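Design job #97: recover the sequence.
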């Protein structure tokens, strides 16, 4: 009976331990991928082994140690010794979590724009760095912070070949991007302190939202699915009042709706439907694109600007060009064509 009572009291920690073990297992073995991937695909969109592992490790670890951070937990009591935090409730921590997260997302977009201004290309482009291996990034799906954390992760654990750390982009990231090294653990800790006096299932929602938010910070950016799922959760929990009223969720819903609309607007109005403009940087003399329907080629200020027929699916063309140009240049920018995704993927 004592064991049952203990397990019930710390049920969130027990579930967290199981998720942690699951994360470690799928990091080592891939025989559960076909069962896990359809589930994580719903909220991680474009789910990969790396995202799956990170999600289970983040959520599992946060749930496991959450009793230390609750309103009566050991670490919360210790923090209360500082007068500044003495009167803070869960929502006070969550407010600062939201502020820091939104500022970091904004910083990521600013760095994406800065990168493109350095090379004189449109902001409505995806950048693919090819050295030492292909890594893409754009305003719609940014990997710029992932590139900063990649070397730290690789130095701690042996990363499997199926997990991409995005280190190719690091050489193009301004120094301010190193802030993610501080921000990532800070958001993790603030998220834990924000569980405060919340009910058990509210704690789980907060932890789930923080886990997705952290993944969005390093893999996708503000307009990615994990970011929007995470922001929905933390904004919703911050706005939640007791007794519950649907009116509490109006503001969070409007914010997320506006972000979705912004993503669609950028995708549609940023598209070039006349041709793909590919700007190659650091190209050698052996640049051969004879396998593609090339409309024009010109050299300009150390760049090679290539116009390619719009008949291709954007994602397939990007991946094919990455393979073709690998080892022949430093990287390339490619314009968007949102409407190409409605074509046959074999095009």
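Job complete. Output follows.
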């Amino acid at each position: 009976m004592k064991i049952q009572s203990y397990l019930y009291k710390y049920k969130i920690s027990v579930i967290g331990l199981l998720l942690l073990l699951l994360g470690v297992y799928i990091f080592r073995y891939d025989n559960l991928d076909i069962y896990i991937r359809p589930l994580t695909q719903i909220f991680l969109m474009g789910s990969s082994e790396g995202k799956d592992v990170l999600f289970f490790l983040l959520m599992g670890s946060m749930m496991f140690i959450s009793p230390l951070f609750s309103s009566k937990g050991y670490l919360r009591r210790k923090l209360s010794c500082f007068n500044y935090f003495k009167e803070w409730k869960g929502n006070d921590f969550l407010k600062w979590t939201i502020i820091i997260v939104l500022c970091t997302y904004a910083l990521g977009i600013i760095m994406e724009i800065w990168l493109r201004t350095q090379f004189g290309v449109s902001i409505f482009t995806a950048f693919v760095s090819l050295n030492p291996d292909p890594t893409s990034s754009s305003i719609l799906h940014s990997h710029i912070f992932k590139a900063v954390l990649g070397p730290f992760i690789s130095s701690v654990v042996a990363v499997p070949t199926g997990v991409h750390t995005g280190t190719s982009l690091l050489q193009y990231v301004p120094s301010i991007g190193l802030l993610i090294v501080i921000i990532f653990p800070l958001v993790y800790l603030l998220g834990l302190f924000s569980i405060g006096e919340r009910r058990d299932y509210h704690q789980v929602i907060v932890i789930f939202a923080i886990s997705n938010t952290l993944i969005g910070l390093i893999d996708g950016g503000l307009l990615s699915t994990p970011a929007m799922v995470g922001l929905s959760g933390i904004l919703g929990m911050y706005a939640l009042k007791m007794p519950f009223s649907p009116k509490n969720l109006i503001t969070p819903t409007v914010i997320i709706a506006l972000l979705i609309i912004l993503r669609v607007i950028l995708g549609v109005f940023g598209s070039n439907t006349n041709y793909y403009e590919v700007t190659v940087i650091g190209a050698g003399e052996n640049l051969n694109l004879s396998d593609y329907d090339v409309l024009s080629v010109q050299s300009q200020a150390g760049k090679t600007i290539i116009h390619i027929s719009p008949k291709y699916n954007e994602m397939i063309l990007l991946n094919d060009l990455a393979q073709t140009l690998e080892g022949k240049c430093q990287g390339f920018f490619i314009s968007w064509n949102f409407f190409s995704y409605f074509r046959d993927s074999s095009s």
